[in-house]
Request: fold
Amino acid sequence: MIEYLEPLINGILLGGLYGVVGIGLSMVFGIMRQVNLAHGELMILSSYLSLVFLQVLGLHPLVTLILVAPLMFFIGYLIQILLFNRVMQRGMEPFLMISFGLSIIIQNALLLIFTPDARSLETAMVIKGVDVFGLFNIPLIYLVNFTVGALVLTALHQFMKRTYMGWAINASADNETAAKLMGINVNKVYAYALGIAAVTAAISGVLVGMSFTFYPHSGTQYLIIAFGVVIIGGLGSLPGTFLGGLVLGVSQLFGGRILGPGFQLLSGYIILLIILTVRPQGILGGR
Amino acid sequence: MTAKPIRLTFIVILLAFLVTMPLWASRYAVNVGLLVCLYVTLASMWNLLAGYSGMVSLGQQMFIGLGGYTLAVSSMYFGVPVYLSVLFGGFISVFLAVLISVSVFRMKGVYFAIGTWVIAEALGICFSNWGYVKYGMGMFIQPAYKLSMSGVYYAGLILCVSSVALVFLLLRSNLGLALMAIRDDDQASETLGVNIFRCKFICFLLSAFITGLAAGVLYLNAIFIQPFEAFGISWTVNLLFIVIIGGIGTVEGPILGAIIFVLLQQFLSEYVGYNLIIFGGITIGVIFFAPRGLVGTLQMKTGWELFPVRRQ
Reply:
């Protein structure tokens, strides 16, 4: 039994990170009923922005978030105002295509600027480990990821429940026409929502950059993870996203332990497909 | 009725141009022609799903990879003649489509899109961990070296013409009528006795079969197959680009889109790095300024169609 404790605990910790990776996608779906295929690229863009600040100013990656997060909020806000708001009323495909176009542009711009080399946000945390009862080591970075992830999800949950902007976002999501009649500027609210989603992308981008190496095309990989998280938990459900992250993280590490490292991603996909088949709306998703 | 002879003449001239191409054109031009033919085929099949049946699939690359690998395995390991192997690829794709239909037909909209994508990714991982197909290193399809360029070109041309004809005839048939009824209002059509599942299932299998065949011909030309390239999402991105700029839900859209796509690809290949940025920009531009695609916008303005599927 003890040999499975390690993948279980590491999987749960990894799941906390996956939760933040998925939350931005989940928010956009819950609020706008649209799928933002550029979310993975927004994440990796943040990783590179953090890398630039790290190299130029010599800051710790987590500290660069003070600069990266507002910048990403601004970028998200602009993307919604300039691109997404124009196609909100035209169904699913135009939004999909625009976000697809955007993701291709960001990915290749990163490739041009930063070359296809592997990068990482180096810190001492990657090497350090926490000893668990002398049985095995947990990488310190996993603990940081999980803590930050849980904090972000809780903060977002409170923001949506307690602040005026949170109410306005919920109101626009529930009934756009009624929200407009109540004097809410729906387009601006959506822009704030995408800005917040971009901030979660910034946080997850920095965490991912600290934990793993990344390339300009890594966005696609994290987009699939985000989809996995969001679908397992249920699109648009905040607690579901956290649960989805945990399920995906644990199933990946168990699959890796039992079948071999090459099958780590595969076991996550298989769990995802089973859940999609049995319960297409996710574990905690409504109809 | 005067439009009919014009249409026929146009189609005949186009066909004559394509059929005689290997006789007068350079090897490079024939290769470009082959790529156009294959992309027309693949895009028409994606359009049949997304534009007419409401199934936005992001997983067409699973049939492309499977078609290519069936060709590689059966022609190299079992010595089956290449064109027969291409046909096998089609059948294996249909087999996969039947297998996964249990799962994917429970998903709708976004879930269908993501579900199909995840299946393709999962297959890519399986193939890259499978020693029989040489892991991620990929396989050289040696028997394809001996083929003549024009032979492969004609195979592509036959696929292209028959897939466009198939979509056209399908849409003029009762099934096409049912499909458009489902697309416009699925509940009303079901009440009137349209079997939604059956219609979508037929389209899904047809699309899998022809995509598998086209993939075989594609890899006869490419000769080298590798799991992450063969099962990569970029195939479907290309098809999306073709169909969206051409015009989703039109028969002509994928044809025009494929021509533009392949020519752009050839033209921009000198500007490595910028070409995909330009693709992304064009996609966004077309969605803003010609929301129904080039063909769709043109049809709305002039009312002229090369392949009218509506009944007068």
Summary: The CA atoms of residues 147 and 239 of chain A lie 16 Å apart. The longest helix of chain A spans residues 2-32. The beta strands of chain A are 129-132, 136-139. Residues 9-216 of chain A form one domain.
